[in-house]
Amino acid sequence: MNSSTPISPHALGNRRELFIDDTLIAQLTDGAYRQMHRPQPKEIALRHDAPWEGTGTGYHSVFQDGSRYRMYYKGFDIKVTPGQIVSEDIDHRFTCYAESSDGIDWQKPELGLHNYGDNKANNIVVTSEPIGQLKIDAAHSAIFKDSNPAVTPDAIYKGIFRVSEPRGLVVMKSPDGIHWTPMSDAPVITDGAFDSQNLAFWDDARSEYRAYWRSFEMPGIPMQHSHPDGVRCIRTATSPDLINWSEARNVTYIGPTKPEELYVNQIKPYHRAPHIMIGFPARYIERDWGDSMKALPDPAHREFRASAQKRYGNALSESLLMCSRDGESFTRWAEGFLRPGPERAGTWNYGNQYLAWHVVETASSLSPDAPNELSLYAVENYWLGQGSNLRRYTLRLDGFVSVNAPLSGGECLTELITYEGNFLRLNFATSAAGDIRVELQDERGLPLPGFALEDSEPLFGDSVDREVTWNEHPDLTQYAGKPVRLRFALRDAELFAYRFTDSK
To answer: What is the biggest distance separating any 2 CA atoms in the chain, rounded to whole angstroms?
Structure first.
């Protein structure tokens, strides 16, 4: 790694770093490679079986709020008649609410706020009734708790809603997450298509609001299906106050990526490494009518939907994984992150596996003394004539992507970095025979005295937070603030994340 050209180190401070992109990776050698990990299915978290929830329930927003988990989603009814799809009933477009004490068992409280028919015994928090000149589409919303330090008590919770007239996006506020009012009498973003879950949030790492929404671009490439406005894409802008926005632009992608039809974006800072934004866009793809299509679940209903328009029957969807360190340029994995999964009723159809916005941390399903895990939630049974289901999936903390190596070994060398703190801690997993060792190098690539690979105590086990030691000596104080590289040597191991800390 010797070089005559000065290299500016990446200043990590004591933030957690993931391997979800290759920004900090200088080399992967021998058998080392990066591996994307897929969420594991668990129980049905919520059944959308109430009549006001409709047949097209989706666009879930999920976040932890102190000791409570909150969930918001669309109540939306899609009716199918021979040769026709009806989904434009403005009177059946709601934002509904559910909550949980653990992120696993969810309840739909009877809020008594809005009528469905002549009954207020429901969990509807926003309807599509006009508010002044605004025609709110409550079935297209994204809700978040505002972490801006300057947020006022009447606006602790915010929501981004589609508006049909005037066309665009409007921001609504709430003091309690239940009662909502618009923050303006006109849309604040008007450049887009918006037929998706459009969202915004406060970016703590950059002290600004950022929004992402659905649009179209026309790059002159063949379409998977004809659309007059081009290919579905994601646009973004920033704001100091959610009202005044910068000039919008399309997000871009690092490396060779083919154009994809992306419906939702589901982008948000990852709570354990908030300088990294992680998104779960839904990929839309049409497949040929052939033996495989005919063998998929719900064939009769698939053909019924196709009688209205072919793509409603042969379109499939799944969620992808992408991330960004600046909010505009994204690394996107081409392979499916949340695939349709084992064939069963309610899966492998258009609208299946749309992930909620965003991940939350929950207790382990293995044992009370096991580390927490990430919970993700995805839609099943969408648009099949009855209410859809929301299934919970789990992933280990920071477990999106790892650096892996077989038992024969492999190494990962980081770019030049500086750090703050005294100790290095890893999130890793090995086999009983495997291990990880770590070396600190200087700018020339030479091992630092006492911190060479042969000084490193082999780490084995499966831990989200294990201290690294060298000859039983873990203290790295003497090199804090100085440019160094980390050399990880792995054998039958996975390395998910690392972090420098001030204490053990």
So the answer is: 77
The residue range of the domain holding 140 is: 54-395
pLDDT number for residue 86: 65
Do residues 278 and 210 lie in contact, with contact meaning Cβ atoms separated by under 8 Å? no
451/72 Cα distance (integer angstroms): 50
pLDDT, tens digit, for every residue of 110-136? Answer: 999 999 988 999 999 999 988 988 999
pLDDT score at 223: 32
CA distance 53 to 313: 23
How many Å apart are CA 371 and CA 465, to the nearest integer? 9
Q: Where residue 21 sits, what CATH number does that domain have? A: 2.60.120.260
Looking at the structure, tell me whether residues 448 and 495 fall in a common domain. yes
Domain membership flag for residue 464:
yes
Of 333, 366, 395, the last residue of a domain is 395
- What total of structural domains would you count in the chain? 2
* Residues 434 and 328 reside in one and the same domain: no
Residues whose CB falls within 8 Å of the CB of residue 228, separated by 6 or more in sequence, listed in order = none
Please check whether residues 481 and 451 belong to one and the same domain.
yes
- Indicate if the alpha-carbon torsion angle 236, 237, 240, 242 is positive or negative: negative
Token output for 92: 């059946």
E strands, 66-207, in order: 68-76, 79-81, 84-86, 93-100, 106-107, 124-126, 135-145, 157-165, 168-174, 181-182, 199-203
Note whether 135 and 283 are same-domain residues. Answer: yes
Q: What is the DSSP secondary-structure string of 166-218?
A: TTEEEEEEESSSSS-EES-SS-SB-SS---S--EEEEETTTTEEEEEEEEEE-
- Strand (E) or helix (H) holding 490: strand 485-501
Among residues 349, 375, 395, which one ends one of the domains? 395
Percentage with pLDDT > 70 across the chain:
94
Are 60 and 134 contained in the same domain?
Answer: yes
Does residue 429 sit in the same domain as residue 296? no
Cα 382 to Cα 385: distance, rounded to the nearest angstrom: 8
**Residue 231 and residue 360 in one domain:** yes
Three-state secondary structure call for residue 387: coil
Q: Are 459 and 490 in contact (CB under 8 A)?
A: no
**Rounded to an integer, what distance in angstroms lies between the CA atom of residue 228 and that of residue 471?**
66
* Calpha distance 325→21 (Å, rounded): 9
**H helices then E strands: how many in the chain?**
3, 37
Regarding whether 139 and 205 lie in a shared domain, the answer is: yes
Q: What pairs with residue 437 in β-bridges? A: 489
Give me the phi and psi of 451, to 5 degrees please: -125, 30
The 10s digit of each residue's pLDDT in 195-236 is: 899 999 999 999 999 999 988 764 444 333 334 456 778 999
